[in-house]
User: What shape does this take?
Amino acid sequence: MSTTAVHNTKWWSGGKSPFNLEYGKVMMWYFLMSDAFTFGAFLIAYGTSRFATNGWPDPNHVFSSYPFKAEGSAAAPLVFVSFMTFVLIVSSVTMVLAVQAGHHQDKKGVVRNLILTIIGGAIFLGCQAWEWTHLHAEGAWWGLNPFTNADGTHATTNFTNFFFTITGFHGFHVFSGVIINIVMLIMTLNNTFEKKGHYLMIEKAGLYWHFVDLVWVFVFTLFYLV
Amino acid sequence: MSHSYNAETYAAAKKEIWKITWILSALTIVELAMGFWMYFSHGTMSSSMVMFLKGTILILMMVKAFYIVSYFMHLKHEIKNMIMTIVVPLLLFVWFITSFLYEGNSYKSLKNRYDKHLQEQTTIKVEEKHHSEAEHEKTAEPATEESSHH
Assistant: This one.
């Protein structure tokens, strides 16, 4: 019988943490993996419906507006959603900067970057609220599709149903992420992590936030670009 | 924890973050450029070119996902056991996407072959109704109000 694990180089025979990660982070990864399957199921259902239908609305036609757009000015597809995409990328960057600041016990850096991340998330949510309101005013909602297919034929409501369901589910994730980040900010300001001696909690919030950004990469591409 | 953090690692980490930021931004700009290219060609582009551009956009999407997961979510720097426990289950998506899109396409072909009425219906051009409908409601509403007053 071996008594110590000092010379044990096998990961799974005890004495070592096989993933070399703390429990909470491993569990966050598994949660995100299950969430990836949920989003994947939504997006694949969308793809299946699109492949099973003869025509499909042109996203450049549907998403061609932006706030404060002058009446009668030229359609501007992709402009507003590009802005939203960059906001989310930048908020992801500030989040990873907050995580790094936490690694290096830089409380000021954590606070500053968390605030920036929260602002980015709030801007994104505001943009999405505007877009939903705009589309709703045009007559689009679950079960209602005022747009025709790209070739001018009658479109089913699949397009709006999937759009509102998937962006709504993603928006709800962004909203949760903003709440989580606000909680992290309050805990940081209360010196909770300083007293603990580490900022590992920020890392878990960070994983969640990056996942939200990751999902947007897919939603943005699949709904607005292709 | 085996990590040790100091001012040097802090600077290096920040440098890596900004590098990845530029890569993600550049990829997004390329994607958008392709999107605008397709838009401004106004249907004059050949369908194989459209397919090629859309395929390229999807590949760039996967590259962006790789950078976010590897660097922002730090998965690249975890040990192999951890990477495998995340990546291997996600391989199910390969089957998931392939079979469902194939199935959707097959459903469409079968419908078009055996339901000629439906196929005809999907070739009839219609007017977009949202603007005219909204105007309709505006003009219709005062009229009904008036009639209720009398």
